[in-house]
TrEMBL record, chains A, B:
<dbReference type="InterPro" id="IPR016171">
    <property type="entry name" value="Vanillyl_alc_oxidase_C-sub2"/>
</dbReference>
<dbReference type="InterPro" id="IPR051264">
    <property type="entry name" value="FAD-oxidored/transferase_4"/>
</dbReference>
<protein>
    <submittedName>
        <fullName>D-lactate dehydrogenase</fullName>
    </submittedName>
</protein>
<feature type="domain" description="FAD-binding PCMH-type">
    <location>
        <begin position="97"/>
        <end position="276"/>
    </location>
</feature>
<dbReference type="InterPro" id="IPR004113">
    <property type="entry name" value="FAD-bd_oxidored_4_C"/>
</dbReference>
<dbReference type="InterPro" id="IPR016169">
    <property type="entry name" value="FAD-bd_PCMH_sub2"/>
</dbReference>
<dbReference type="InterPro" id="IPR036318">
    <property type="entry name" value="FAD-bd_PCMH-like_sf"/>
</dbReference>
<keyword id="KW-0560">Oxidoreductase</keyword>
<keyword id="KW-0274">FAD</keyword>
<dbReference type="GO" id="GO:0005739">
    <property type="term" value="C:mitochondrion"/>
</dbReference>
<dbReference type="InterPro" id="IPR016167">
    <property type="entry name" value="FAD-bd_PCMH_sub1"/>
</dbReference>
<dbReference type="Pfam" id="PF02913">
    <property type="entry name" value="FAD-oxidase_C"/>
</dbReference>
<dbReference type="GO" id="GO:0004458">
    <property type="term" value="F:D-lactate dehydrogenase (cytochrome) activity"/>
</dbReference>
<dbReference type="Pfam" id="PF01565">
    <property type="entry name" value="FAD_binding_4"/>
</dbReference>
<dbReference type="InterPro" id="IPR016166">
    <property type="entry name" value="FAD-bd_PCMH"/>
</dbReference>
<keyword id="KW-0285">Flavoprotein</keyword>
<dbReference type="InterPro" id="IPR006094">
    <property type="entry name" value="Oxid_FAD_bind_N"/>
</dbReference>
Amino acid sequence: MAAPRNIARLATRLSSRRSAISSSSSSTSTLRRATKPITEFIRNGSTLPPRSSQFAKATTDHLNALKAISSSTLSTLDNTASADELKTYNDDWMNKYHGKSQIVVKPKTTEEVSKIMKYCYANDLAVVPQGGNTGLVGGSNPVHDEIILNLTNLNQIRSFDEVSGVLVADGGVILETADHYLAEKGFIFPLDLGAKGSCHIGGNVSTNAGGLRLLRYGSLHGTVLGLEVVLPDGTIWNGLSKLRKDNTGFDIKQLFIGSEGTIGIITAISILCPRRPSAMNVAVFSLDSYEAVQKVFAEAKGHLGEILSAFEFFDKQSYALVKKHQEENGGDRKVFETEGDFYCLIETGGSNAEHDEAKLTGLLEHLMENEMVLDGVLAQDSTQFQSLWSLRELVPESAGKAGSVYKYDVSVPVGKMYGLVEKMRTKLREGGILEGDGKKDGPIRAVAGYGHMGDGNLHINIVANKYTDEVEKIIEPYIYEIVAENEGSISAEHGLGVMKAPYIGYSKNETSIELMKKVKTLFDPKGLLNPYKYIV
Amino acid sequence: MAAPRNIARLATRLSSRRSAISSSSSSTSTLRRATKPITEFIRNGSTLPPRSSQFAKATTDHLNALKAISSSTLSTLDNTASADELKTYNDDWMNKYHGKSQIVVKPKTTEEVSKIMKYCYANDLAVVPQGGNTGLVGGSNPVHDEIILNLTNLNQIRSFDEVSGVLVADGGVILETADHYLAEKGFIFPLDLGAKGSCHIGGNVSTNAGGLRLLRYGSLHGTVLGLEVVLPDGTIWNGLSKLRKDNTGFDIKQLFIGSEGTIGIITAISILCPRRPSAMNVAVFSLDSYEAVQKVFAEAKGHLGEILSAFEFFDKQSYALVKKHQEENGGDRKVFETEGDFYCLIETGGSNAEHDEAKLTGLLEHLMENEMVLDGVLAQDSTQFQSLWSLRELVPESAGKAGSVYKYDVSVPVGKMYGLVEKMRTKLREGGILEGDGKKDGPIRAVAGYGHMGDGNLHINIVANKYTDEVEKIIEPYIYEIVAENEGSISAEHGLGVMKAPYIGYSKNETSIELMKKVKTLFDPKGLLNPYKYIV
């Protein structure tokens, strides 16, 4: 095989160019924001659990007591808000979950949160904590008439230490606001999400958000140094440490990271923020097998080491969906001289543009010499940077345009990741519903696999003509079974919420579930906080 | 001020040299091992708590039952071991803590650990889990006659995935063994300790060990992906996930990280291992103030970014102790042309030697141009690499040679770190016991401050003529008070064990302590596991 032309051409050009895309730290953020967030569609899950009679029904007496605590309280009970106004809080952004709460409280201080919880606890009123309401599993909306405790007004940055990089801020601070604040000081929030313009950092921590920077900066379990939490009975737990090292007892804060508001309300976080990379690069490759993708991943880690910031992959089915979508929108670009069965995207972020380019050139040359890739393209400017990222980021949107999508977000060991997609195809083929293979008009048009290779996070999109019980029964619970067989997770980053709570048994064993229930009861014996979800 | 000569000379030489020290990944490990581990001396703390009558006294019946479970059981009860042989397990390596256990069980499998715990739980026998027995706070030795469950025989590497970098290994694997195994594959264990030749990775996780690589790779709360734990009642909890992302419930494993064997016995860990850096550099600077150290720390983070692997500091009192110790041992080296009130050590570890040197040169030039340092020295070869590290690593040993040392390991925000040392000096001066200041023969000869600047981890060494009540009463609880005033931790990395358990109130508030007690009771209602320690 001849050396791929694109790469050969680009590799020689690489060292001479000066990357416009990496001239300032803020440009990165702009680039990311300019890209459309990945919209996620999730089907309506099982029937919602019934309302618990253990919880009181909110009355005007309750409302008046809450208004005395927090002036920023809205309710349909006294017409301070219309039912339509409360819909913003009752419904999720996908318009999939619809709560029936009559009261929204928006406290301005931790003390107000504490008083609200104390009152609700004493009066058996169930409460759903709500941040930016950008979740994908119905975790921040009422299932029935729970009081909504929205943290929008708790939005102050409390302190930032430029020596240690430790930021302390209220839970209701919007992620993008926090990141802009840090950017001005040359630092970066160690988490990036499509929903950054709306989501709250407290919500990010309570859902253990993953996002785009996880490969580089690790999970919030490592970067969060401390939390301030209001417990279900109103007790304020001040665990707002700014210390990187503290070995004086159980690391209680870890329980709240990813607890989805079921055992406490995060009112402030303390987090370690790294320096902002001053240089960014991105390259996309075509490859002939998933084995090749794995090999390139290993090589990328070896050559790029500490500057590797993202490693994403997608299959030819995903790429076909994106190309079709782009063609339909007037785009007609030939990206690769040689297309492949697989594609991967590599992003670097470092402190020295020349060094990063040299490392990337070294990787390109190695991949070429060893014929590990079919072709490759490297971004030459900010437009190309965004355009190459869009090949990966447009997959979910393109799938949505192609039909009704059964969408799964799972996590399995990297080596087993693509096997799940293949098993799914076999299952659908055996069921006689996959298009092709002599079945020209099967209800399933495509099965696309893509995701965060670096994190072992796989997205499977099954594109159907329409949603039918026949199709669903073939997919589920099979998809959960093969995740479980591979010791995977049925929710890599979206959480459990109300949607996946019934399926936890596919990811967690009996002992784990029993321990989780004990922890829930320990912190919230009345079960008032975010009921009907997570662990039920 | 003229540009420091050492730096000017070295900076120009820097780009032309080829670092012998960074020629292979294994050399780093060799260098570290060649350096003497930092020996830590800690005074005997408060009186030990009395034996609890709730625990059964071990009999020959118990012994026989345990021997039936695990053939590798030693006891003085049936003379399968002498009291002297059991001392290895009963005493800590500093010979400070002395247990009186008559039974040591050394299971070979997780199932054996489970059966042992099940039996002990049913029979009210208290148990102390023991790894490499290298701790500094008496956490792995019996306080009275607890049965010792030693994990030495549980020492198999279970699997390693070269694509994801995930290692799964038994808790009893020695840290150095794990790291050597990984080195052969081009990976590194994300933790390094002086005790690496003896300590167990299960013990590292259960004590949340910090060590030398924390600045670069973060804490074990971020790198540990899963655990297998035997609970106090013998239940095996398989939480041995290999996934980077899993948002399906409370992250229960986090409770065991740093729990010091009080709620479960870690029988295996799953941990994410990064690629091994192929290049290492080290430089030491003299500076005129602690403010300058902080500025250089910020500059180092900015210039070195992702390759900064250690930032250590020590004051002139520490350096004086080291120089004296070196002179007494025949060393007579002039390191700095201009000495200072403070010193800092910067280590880099990256994937490209030339790039790293260029980044370091850039930092040196910046520090020189802005007159932020008085002088600086850069290692030219492996001997110098080790010799420069020894300036920092010899501080505790040198203090020990100079007198009786009151030794503290605390954590405070970086900006407030050195203020603690100054407050301590003022306190001793006010007490009229600090040498100098018109008191030529005070019992306190020196107060030295040094530590892991990058982690906010300060060591204070107070060198006295001898240990006296008069001196101790002036130091304690004052030292804990000023740590608490600064929202610090009274134990940055050593843990609580039996030594610091009584002082937890200085670092944790009432709510935290109450939550800790609830967690302990939840997992270990009989309080059988590692009693008299941690949270009491």
